[in-house]
Amino acid sequence: MLHSNAKPEPSTLCGIHAVEAALGRRPIDHVLVTQGHHGPRVERIIQACRAHGIPLRFAPLAALDRAAGATHHQNVVAVCPAKAYDDLESILAVAVMSSSPDAGEDTGATALPKPLLLVLDGVEDPANLGAVARTAVAAGVTGIVIPERRAAGLSPAVARAAAGALEHVKIARVTNLTRAIIEIKRRQVWVYGFEAKAEKSYLDLDYLLPCALVFGGEGHGLHRLVREACDQIAAIPIYGQVESLNVSVAAAVVLYEAARQRHARPL
Q1: Which residue among 173, 229, 259, 265 is least crowded, i.e. fewest CB within 10 A of its CB?
Q2: Cβ proximity of 16 and 74 under 8 Å
Q3: Contact between residue 160 and residue 69 where contact means Cβ atoms under 8 Å apart
Q4: Contact present, 226 and 178 (Cβ < 8 Å)
Q5: Helix, strand, or coil (residue 101)
């Protein structure tokens, strides 16, 4: 089984970017706004809620702190189901379509970009997952794949760190990451894994190919079976007195090399 059909549980979105991005994109029960805090950005959310028919509730600051479970909510909290996971097949279907050699040819249509997938092997810190998701959206990924076990899920903390980016990317949660990678390879997508001790540099890889980038979690890196399923393993060179980079930083470095290759303008 490659995906989870778990029903999203009630959750909250905190912060202006996260709430604004969700308006009109997912069901929202109601939005809480701190009484007396109606600056231009909050006022824009209030007007958007009214336009979408979303109930507004104005409450004391302490009530928003309780609802959010944190104080960093920028005076706005949306009460809604957690973001639903996408089916891995829906991400791979896009990959197959855009990998087709005649996609966009002889039809006058614009060719679809080659798929760029991101696979995270057990990233447990919600702040890291949210930061990676935001960078992935900025770099133009096709979709993100995460495992069900021993990894962060799409919690309010992840949504807060992603600052609205979760609304703009497909995320599949799979029961077996190694099998998912094998399925990705079966769809003619190259799989690149990244480890600090690999001999090949990340700069030596061809990101113009349809590819999936695999990063390990905090501490353990890539699991053995995941590493063995990758087509190539590469590293980001380390020049100072540290052993490795934080996963969110490493993902950003590689994703933007991929974006640079894919969007470089010919001389």
Answers
A1: 265
A2: yes
A3: no
A4: yes
A5: coil
| Tens place of pLDDT per residue across the chain (267 aa) | 444 444 445 588 888 888 998 888 888 999 999 998 678 989 999 999 999 999 999 999 999 888 888 778 889 999 988 888 999 999 998 766 655 555 545 444 445 568 999 999 999 999 999 999 999 999 999 999 999 998 998 988 898 889 889 989 999 999 999 999 999 999 999 999 999 889 999 999 999 999 999 999 887 889 999 999 999 999 999 999 888 899 999 999 999 999 999 998 654
For the chain, the farthest-separated pair of C-alpha atoms sits apart, in whole angstroms, at: 60
* DSSP secondary structure code for residue 242 in this structure: -
Edge-first strand order for the sheet with 200-201 is 171-174, 143-147, 116-121, 211-216, 190-194, 232-235, 200-201
Q: Are strands 190-194 and 116-121 parallel, antiparallel or unpaired?
A: unpaired
Please state the domain extents for the chain: 10-81, 88-263
Structure tokens at 175: 């029961």
- Can you name the residues that pair with 118 across neighbouring β-strands? 144, 213
Whether the Cβ atoms of residue 89 and residue 116 lie closer than 8 Å to each other: no
In whole angstroms, what separates CA 54 from the centre of its chain?
26
The residue behind tokens 């089916």 is: 87
**Torsion region of 82: left, alpha or beta (phi above 0 gives left; psi -120 to 50 gives alpha):** beta
Which residue's structure tokens are 């470095």?
A: 253
214-227 burial string, b = 16+ CB within 10 Å, else e? bbbbeeebbbeebb
Cα Rg of the chain, angstroms: 20
The CATH code for residues 10-81 is 3.30.1330.30
Domain 88-263: CATH superfamily, name plus number: SPOUT methyltransferase, trefoil knot domain (3.40.1280.10)
